[in-house]
Amino acid sequence: MSSNAKIVLRKKPNKNGLYPLAIRISKNRRSNYHYIGHYIELEYWDEKNIRVRKSHPNAANLNNLLVKKLSEANKMLMDLQAEKQDLSANRIKDKLYKDSKGSSFSEIAKAFLDELEANKKLARYYTDKVRVNHVLNFSKSNQLSFQEIDEQFLRNFKTHLKTKLGLSERSIVNNLIVIRTIYNRAIKLGIVDRKLYPFGSGGIQIKFPESQKTGLNKEELIALESVNGLTENEIHARNIWLFSFYFAGIRVADVLKIRWSDISDNRLNYRMDKNSKLLSLKIPEKAFAILEQYSSNKQDDNDFIFPEMKMVNVKASKDVFRKINAATSMLNKYLARVAKKAKINKKVTMHIARHSFGTISEDKIPIKMLQKLYRHSSITTTINYQTNFMHKDADDALDSVINF
């Protein structure tokens, strides 16, 4: 008896009450199923015409995929029959789909995330993992193919992120960037043809929305430095913030990891985590005053200056990451109280220490020196960053016209 393939909706729902679409391989009245990874509500299945009803929001893409999968299965069945291989339904299925593993979006995404985790890029790992899950939850499939990720899919996905998840334009762009990165990997692996690439000219163009970076001005910095009546926790939070600011806005993760051994000859010598760049800067007098407050707790030269990392197993990268996240949240909580006592109306967090340095430096420091202070690999990054804080020329130009 000849074998055959047919599209079916399996009547075994998952935990969410959705039913799986599959290709049924039959031989001698015995069947086996290849699940394509998509699930739908029972009401969307047209049993008579063997297709997803038009009322389903993704009907066109799903039906196109089903036709494609069925065509591929029938072609391979004919090839097996031409070879006169008398196989069971189960063995036929194994032969048909033996090379299908590792070709879906979820498989390539997993390899991408595993690489981030292995390289201890944990901040990006956790954020990109959430973004990958957004894609898989939207598609309702763990077997989403790259061929399905076309321009219309991405437009629908953008709408979903905005209307259903309430994400900002910046967050939506970050989600698209992750998809683009994984799609490019699939192209390099030969999983999908470059001509199907849905990004760039003629497709979805990724553009970052303009964002307003706001830091503290000179008067607000003085108020922050001099405010009295702070609790011990508030003083500590202010110390960490100011220490970051005094070194051109070192990221909080790097500040908390600084050890006493990183200080020598009145200089801070430290290799940053984010880009492994070596930082070597003269320690300002104001920073020495902060260091003095913590010197009594110094156990040895290898000890951390600030207390947050003292009890952490530094060899467990995930524990370090979680501890820094928790510490940052706590510091931001106390910084909000400090700002209120200092009568600063802006939101003060660890992140804006860097913005504050940019605000006050404005155009006072040559751009090449700012690149060094910010530890940017590209001067273009420095120019784009500092543009957020350089307003004097524009202000002077405006005054020259309206002050008559």
Search tags:
8 strands; DNA polymerase, domain 1; 15 helices; hpI Integrase, Chain A; DNA integration; Tyrosine-type recombinase/integrase; three-stranded antiparallel sheet; 404 residues; single chain; DNA recombination; mainly alpha; elongated
Q: Approximately how much helix is present in the residues?
A: 40-55%
> How would you describe the shape?
elongated
Query: What do the pLDDT scores average to?
Result: 82
Structural class: mainly alpha
Spatially, the strands of the biggest sheet line up as 1-2-3
Give the C-level CATH assignment of the largest domain.
Answer: Mainly Alpha
The gyration radius over C-alpha positions equals 29 Å
Provide a count of the helices: 15
